[in-house]
């Protein structure tokens, strides 16, 4: 007995709907493909529109902020149009977002802004991270912690490193800045926006840092590096309390 195209339509739409949602794409609305949301091809059984969708997905740069596009190259199973993929993705994202930074344990990967993407293909999860700066020892620790937590939840995981666009301290979220201040650590000021070569300076950077305890401006830097290279040590001019400052980069 021949398959009834109308009966396949709902399943087709469900599968494609998951793919579109994962790639942050919407149903095409160009006139030549107007039928795809209802009928494609002559009798609703052709898939010409898939070429258009594949092209749109391929031109989206893998690893860009907010992008969930990864290179599949046929290695991963096709996304399943079931509630399982959605719940695996939600679980993986919740676990990944909550992994703490070992150097600034009050901050999570989400607070730091280094989580570039989470995708789920069946039970398989791919997480993309961006290093805060090259050589940061915390990244290896965070990768390991992330993989352990996802494995403990029964998920097969691959953690990928995304280098472009580079992270800057501007990516620390508002919530992350509040958590730093609440912990007595001054959050970073605006990151310098450079084009071309990076200038090297022999004298320490001059910043107007406010005390996270009393709010007084004009704190004095007492050490260029604190317990970790990403923080400097300051002393408040008003209350005389020492405190750490997360450097802007
Ligand atoms: Zn103070």
SSE map:
Elements: H1 5-22, H2 49-59, H3 83-97, H4 109-112, E1 115-121, E2 124-129, H5 137-152, E3 156-161, H6 174-182, E4 185-186, E5 220-223, E6 231-235, E7 242-246
Parallel strand pairs: 2-3, 4-7
Antiparallel strand pairs: 1-2, 5-6, 6-7
The structure holds zinc ion.
Residues 211, 213-214, 216, 236, 238-239, 241 line the site of zinc ion (ZN).
How would you characterize the overall build of this protein?
- The protein is built from six helices and seven strands; from the N terminus they run ααααββαβαββββ.
- The protein has three domains: 7-59, no CATH class; 83-161, 2-Layer Sandwich (GMP Synthetase, Chain A, domain 3), CATH 3.30.300; 173-192 and 206-246, no CATH class.
- The termini are far apart.
- It has a four-stranded mixed beta sheet. A three-stranded mixed beta sheet has the order 1-2-3.
- With 249 residues, it is an alpha/beta fold.
- The radius of gyration is 24 Å and the shape is elongated.
- The longest helix is centred in the N-terminal third of the chain and has 18 residues, at 5-22.
- The protein has helices at residues 5-22, 49-59, 83-97, 109-112, 137-152, 174-182, and strands spanning 115-121, 124-129, 156-161, 185-186, 220-223, 231-235, 242-246.
- Zinc ion (ZN) binds at residues 211, 213-214, 216, 236, 238-239, 241.
